[in-house]
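User: Show me a protein chain along with its predicted structure.
Assistant: Here is one chain, sequence first, then structure tokens.
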Amino acid sequence: SSGGFLEIAKLATAQFRSVSIPPLLFFLLATVTQLALGLVVLLRALFRALPKGVLQISFKHPKRDLTAILLYGVLILGVSYLYDFVLLKLGVHIPPQFVFDEHLSSQFGFVLAAAVIGAPVFEELFFRGYLLTIMAASRPIFGLVVSSLIFAAIHLHLIYFPILFFLGLVLGYSYLKTKNILVPITIHAVNNLIAFLILLGQS
């Protein structure tokens, strides 16, 4: 799956398991990163006026927004599944699925909240609500592409870079179309929840 927070955790665990560093530490580090990204926006909002159009929230078109969440969410899940299928058919090595060991099992509530609430909220506040809005002010396509590239790169997962880039594009497009940050947040949260449940079932 392409869930941002979970992909960081999977990669970190696969690469550093031999060093015997508790996986929970990587969840903590990833969570701090998510918080830092979101706080950049929130602190700026508190102590300095945000540029026009940043962090837009709207409840004027609930039917349109719900339709966008459904359509873009299904699109992301479908493309993610297809991408994994193609990798398997090509014989490309996919890093081992994340294992919930005793450390993470004891912090199940924290892990779930960080993956399904923390990552979607703070990543979307920064990448779509702030960065994309500023970069797309004069050149929408440029802003959408560049902010999505940064979003994919920051996850440090080479194999899933294309799908993370696609995820960034869809989330960014959904925000530009609806002008409602709650739309990409919800899509991101549902995507991460599904990825979380799949990984939990495989552990």
